């Protein structure tokens, strides 16, 4: 699925896990955030960017090094790949990964320790370290689009604690709220109202309570309960 967020920003949502890629254009060059969850989705993404948008991917920002967001990395060998300096530990820690997904791994070419400002066309992106979902998670603030890419810090309207803990996740959510954006984009699905951050914070305060969850959220809620019980 392809959605146009602005005249120079396009969102692609794959069939696998609804993992997405956000593409920002600068003439015939593209900056991409995240890289899809399956090879078929990644190949379709590449064709669309190069044939329909008439652009070449020059920069890829990986918010975290989990395989369900890395399928397209190998398809853009000339692109710079930006990741947090702790990417390798995050990759090694991933618990749920198929054999195909293990082949998505490509080493990053540039490492970020704290934050990086990227000027891309008319946009200025603030790529900042926000340890929450993983210790090495990066988030991306795009003020000119009133859009905050939160990676997997927010999953639907909840949080996922398998690689974190409640205190660290609460701090990560507060850092997101401090950006005061009207819209957010997580690494799965589409752009939603930033109230999802508040919903995730409310869930975190009462994980064992009663919640109305969709099927996708229910998967991660069950894992949260198992982790809290262990």
The succession of helices and strands, N to C, reads: EEEEHEEHHEEEEEHEEHH
Span between N and C termini? Answer: 38 Å
Which range does the strand content fall in? 25-35%
Tally of strands: 13
Question: Can you give the mean pLDDT?
Answer: 97
Query: What's the Cα radius of gyration?
Result: 17 Å
As laid out across the biggest beta sheet, the strand order is 1-2-3-4-5-6-7
As residue ranges, the low-confidence spans are: none
Largest sheet: 7 strands, mixed
- Helical residue percent? 25-40%
State the helix count. Answer: 6
Instruction: Please state the structural category.
Output: alpha/beta
Shape category: globular
Brief descriptors of the model:
230 residues, 27% helix, single chain, 6-stranded mixed β-sheet, alpha/beta, 7-stranded mixed β-sheet
Notes on the structure:
- The protein is α/β, with parallel strands linked by helices and 230 residues long.
- 27% of the residues lie in helices and 29% in strands.
- It contains 6 helices and 13 strands.
- The chain has helices at 39-52, 87-93, 99-102, 166-177, 195-205, 215-229; strands at residues 2-6, 9-13, 20-26, 29-33, 56-61, 80-84, 110-112, 115-120, 123-129, 138-142, 147-151, 183-186, 191-193.
- The chain has a 7-stranded mixed β-sheet with strand order 1-2-3-4-5-6-7, with helices on one face. The protein has a 6-stranded mixed β-sheet with strand order 8-9-10-11-12-13.
- α4 (166-177) runs antiparallel to α5 (195-205).
- The longest helix is centred in the C-terminal third of the chain and has 15 residues, at 215-229.
């Amino acid at each position: 699925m392809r959605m146009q967020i602005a005249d120079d920003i396009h969102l692609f949502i794959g069939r696998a896990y609804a993992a997405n890629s956000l593409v920002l254009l600068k003439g015939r060059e593209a900056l991409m955030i995240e890289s899809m969850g399956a090879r078929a989705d990644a190949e379709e993404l590449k064709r669309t960017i190069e044939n329909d948008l008439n652009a070449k991917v020059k920069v890829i920002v990986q918010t975290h090094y989990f395989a369900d967001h890395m399928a397209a990395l190998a398809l853009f060998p000339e692109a710079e790949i930006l990741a947090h300096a702790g990417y390798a530990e995050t990759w090694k820690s991933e618990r749920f990964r198929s054999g195909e997904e293990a082949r998505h791994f490509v080493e990053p070419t540039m490492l970020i320790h704290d934050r990086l400002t990227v000027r891309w066309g008319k946009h200025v992106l603030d790529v900042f370290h926000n340890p929450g979902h993983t210790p090495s998670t990066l988030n991306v603030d795009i003020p000119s689009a009133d859009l905050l890419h939160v990676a997997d810090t927010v999953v639907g309207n909840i949080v996922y604690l398998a690689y974190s803990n409640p205190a660290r996740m609460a701090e990560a959510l507060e850092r997101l709220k401090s950006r005061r954006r009207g819209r957010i984009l997580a690494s799965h699905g589409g752009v939603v109202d930033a109230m999802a951050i508040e919903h995730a914070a409310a869930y975190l305060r009462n994980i064992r309570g009663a919640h109305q969850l969709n099927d996708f959220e229910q998967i991660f809620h069950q894992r949260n309960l198992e982790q809290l019980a262990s």
